[in-house]
Amino acid sequence: MATHITPCSSSSSSFSFSSEFNVCKPRKCYFSKWVSQVPPRIHARNYCQIKSSNGYPLNAVSMQDGMDGSPLAKGIKPNDEEVFFDFSDPEEVQSTLSITVVGASGDLAKKKIFPALFALYYEDCLPENFMVFGYARTKLTDEELRNMISGTLTCRIDKRENCEDKMEQFLKRCFYHSGQYNSEEHFAELDSKLKEKEAGKLSNRLFYLSIPPNIFVDVVRCASLKASSVNGWTRVIVEKPFGSDSESSSDLTRCLKQYLTEDQIFRIDHYLGKELVENLSVLRFSNLVFEPLWSRSYIRNVQLIFSEDFGTEGRGGYFDNYGIIRDIMQNHLLQILALFAMETPVSLDAEDVRNEKLEDVIVGQYKGHSKAGRTYPGYTDDSTVPNNSLTPTFAAAALFINNARWDGVPFLMKAGKALHTKRAEIRVQFRHVPGNLYKRNFGTDLDKATNELVLRVQPDEAIYLKINNKVPGLGMRLDRSDLNLLYRARYPREIPDAYERLLLDAIEGERRLFIRSDELDAAWSLFTPLLKELEEKKIAPELYPYGSRGPVGAHYLAAKYNVRWGDLSGED
Asked: Which residue, 106, 214, 420, 501, has fewest beta-carbon neighbours within 10 Å?
């Protein structure tokens, strides 16, 4: 079941992309003379309304480290003499941005990547000189590519007046080149087309690998040898899955690093670009009311819940090779857990985050059933799934963090397909009030006697706090109510898609929302022993009906820690 990786020895020579440099802004700055030999950053035409995730607009980034070992930095000796750059003069900076979507004919490219690029262009967040190239094996012309993606492009709800003009201008900047993923010759042809469009300007190139992981290394090798920028930066965005266990993930990283530096690899997890996940640290660190409560002293448990109300629906071939633990838990939910529980800096060390015994993990698989005259298919009814598949479509786990802040607090994860609802949320259940005067009004229901903070990532983004209050009247009757921030009511402006945020960050070289190799190693080291035991012992998943609340075992798992799953209360 391990992901197939093309051997690193596919090329006898090793070559690195041109290293990347960032020149300080604002637009008028003083630098040492040697900086003039370093490629300047691309400037957006206007200040973006969408900012890069470091909180600054596109035209305000700082110089990055790591220049000494790069080819461009060799032989450059800084001195004390100062020179002046005026970046507002277009004659000073003639640079281009080339974005190549590898796998351009696939669903992800059509549904997410091209629409996100258009949205950035629509908001004036891309530089003046940019172009988009599609690359895939499918034979297409430039015009056929434009026709293919035009149906997926949409404009902001609040800016529709110039939509058609913007769309037409964007499509004119889209081009296509057909080629094999392992052909250096075809990538050399792509390079020629890029250079023709770049017209001698300083070139910065971003490659988005929207392809299966078994051809990552081939593409990176060919692009590095034949299509790397020679005078600007080159960066590569890699889509998950990043391997299927610790060994395959390490092999993939090792092979990629034969051609790339770590700073050039942007491993994308689109959940880290979602608005509510971005808001998690803001909520905690900029609100005095929450930060003092963020510890074992006040928090009883934390729940990270991901559920879909549909099954594989004919697309089970990919899913069956990975399962719900690899597809959702090991990346999306574990990254959110790290952001939630982080100290300064973030630690995702496998020694700090531990999984309890196998008894504390429940796996399930949805089965077919009939309800109200309608038949719902089971997982193995999917024609793309083997009849005897034991791949989990549901998993629940209890994890603990070994530090002073979180000692003893259960972090419960749950993810599944074909459940009763579609949602992704973080639920923080607080401890009960010591010596509560109104204890008899709640009876023995601990959940009603405690507060709960909910961050709903999707759908209908919201933050709400469950509190207890008195119902108006002469008697003493208590009620549980919500203090609710519903995003669509408070912020009627359309929320940018996560891919927009992450693409903008990659263009800017902002890495905070991308996964480093050491984080990836730690995440896999946490889940690999569990996955190996499930697969080697061929542990059968517990069956649950399509559209239900999941396996019964998940309720027993929560009850073991005196917890009730928050999404099953019926109050939301």
From this structure: 214
Q: Is 332 a catalytic residue?
A: yes
C-alpha separations of 358 from 56, 139, 189, 325, 395 in Å: 44, 49, 52, 14, 12
Tokens standing for 85? 């750059």
CA neighbor of 136 nearest in space, from 100, 170, 184: 100
The amino acid that residue 554 corresponds to is: A
* Segment among 191-195, 239-243, 382-386, 472-476 with least mean pLDDT: 472-476
Radius of gyration of the chain (CA): 26
- Mean of pLDDT values over 320-341: 88
Measured CA to CA, the distance from residue 239 to residue 278 in angstroms comes to 19
Q: How far is CA 383 from CA 63, 237, 535, in A?
A: 53, 32, 22
Assess contact for 184 and 222: CB atoms under 8 A: yes
Say what the pLDDT of residue 490 is. Answer: 80
* Cβ-contact 570, 448 below 8 angstroms: no
pLDDT band at 78 (very low <50, low <70, confident <90, very high): very low
Give the CA distances from residue 277 to residues 338, 455, 498, in Å, rounded to whole numbers and listed in that order: 11, 8, 10
Per the residue annotation, which of 43, 270, 332, 420 is the catalytic one?
332
* 410, 566 Cβ separation under 8 angstroms: no
Question: Using H for helix, E for strand and C for coil, what is the string for 60-76?
Answer: CCCCCCCCCCCHHHCCC
353 residue type, one letter: V
Predicted pLDDT of residue 174: 94
pLDDT of residue 54: 44
What pLDDT shows up at residue 395? 95
Whose structure tokens read 């050039």?
A: 264
Q: Is the pLDDT of residue 71 over 60?
A: no
Nearest to 205 by CA among 294, 101, 298: 101
Sign (positive or negative) of CA dihedral 345, 348, 351, 355: positive
Pairing relation of β-strands 361-367 and 542-545? parallel
CA-to-CA separations, 164 to 113, 156, 366, in angstroms, rounded: 19, 12, 44
